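Field: sequence (string)
Field: structure_tokens (string)

Example rows 1 and 2, in order.
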Amino acid sequence: MPTTPYNRIAGGSLERVAALSDGVFAVAMTLLVLDLHAPAAAAVHSEGELRQKLLPLLPQLVAYLMSFLTLGIFWVGQQTQLNHFARADRNLAWVHLGFLFAVTLLPFSTSLLAEFIEYRTALLLYWLNIVLLGLMLAGSWLYASRHGLVMEDAPPDLNRLVLGRIVVAQSLYAIGAALCLYSTYLSIAFIVVIQLHYAIAPRTSRWLRY
């Protein structure tokens, strides 16, 4: 009686991949806000003191906003891919687990950046986290498209759209990271603008539509 290799039947449920991804993203987004702490009531006795206590929280607030946008953008990107996959296999499941590994790292890299916002090392580690997210998402699509896992009725230009969006976004993130040579604040501002663009998705020039 012929036997079926285990690897041929493992990891074939797209629904389970999507469910796990939603849970990991939800937890990561929740962990981001845990670094925000309200000033101790005992240390505040006036409006002026409250404003003074809130000022040091600005780096944490900026890092939280940036990372929440980052996770939102990559969640949409992953869901877009999953919605156009006909099926999964063991290798694709592990690629997405690698992607989720990068997602779970973001609360740490965010906390590091918020604590050391003026240090290039913290900014570059945060950027490398984004690079890892992009590489794993691109790897997912490349694997699926080369192994017949994409739906047959998918739009003919879907491959260009998916990979083009990742390449353009990662190129812009790289420019943003390079700006830390001048100022980490300038670098962060540039990255936030990129994220707002992709979150709002306005009508822009052709090379930014990806």
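Row 2 begins here:
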Amino acid sequence: MKRTLGIIFFTLLFISCKGSEVIIPENGNENTYKNPVIPRSLPDPTVLNAADGNFYLYATEDIRNVPIFRSSDLVNWNFLGTAFTDQTRPTFVSGGGIWAPDINYINGKYVLYYAMSVWGGEWGCGIGVATADRPEGPFTDHGKLFRSDEIGVQNSIDACYFEENGKKYLFWGSFRGIFGIELSDNGLSLKPGAQKVQIAGTAYEGTYIHKRNGYYYLFASTGTCCEGLNSTYTTVVGRSDNLFGPYLDKSGQSMMENHHEILIQKNSKFVGTGHNSEIVSDDKGQDWIFYHAVWVDNPQGRVLMLDKIQWMNDWPYVTDKCPSLEADKPYFKK
């Protein structure tokens, strides 16, 4: 059964991260949106602009079997169903949950990388992969790429696919280090003989790599994701001239030593602001990013957030380094 999810139009206070100014917005109009864009728990979002012109969004399975949503404007979303069923879901971790999916279009297939783990199972967890002919599925699971104890990386979660010059790579990891490795031509296995390379230190998880104007940007999250209103998740970024680093902050200090720039941090209405999605663009070329947060007004799970990414001197930033409460919508031609 399909269900349309809209925005909740409450009157909210916006308190700037940079000061004590209080702005009380109006109830919104056709030109603005309010966070959260989906007021239900959708942690660790991943998003793709598919061949049909729509955006498809997937998330950690707080909705069992990995929820799939569709939108034409990044703001209004329809729930389509799930990537798996109880019969088709991955099984390579006994009793494991499906975390942090990463959606991609590879060789004519929709390819979904995912982590499978139980809380605290840092040596038994791993990364798997599934494929579908359509973004709404159904997805066929191909099982694990590797487990932590097989690849030698404790807490192997949070996959990120990256392709360049015909080569395919997977980046992953958590607070035991961020690593990358080359994949096979179809992206469904490791390239024979490929060796993992560490690219960032022990402060990060939720990896996403974005290339722009010759630079590679490593987006990640620091802090705690899952402690409700006590969550300290913060979205951060570093930059490199090379895919495998070194990734540096603005002062030239390395993410291998856990240095970075803050992109999104908490404010009075949202905390635990982390695990961002891919950057997607609207019809004006404006860049947008999804992430999750705990909503102070209704702290049930981790709700879906949307904010505009802007650029200055080839560095990304979000206004005031914190979530917007109300902002101009992405632009799409009607």
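free_text_note (row 2): Residues 56 and 316 are 24 Å apart (CA to CA).
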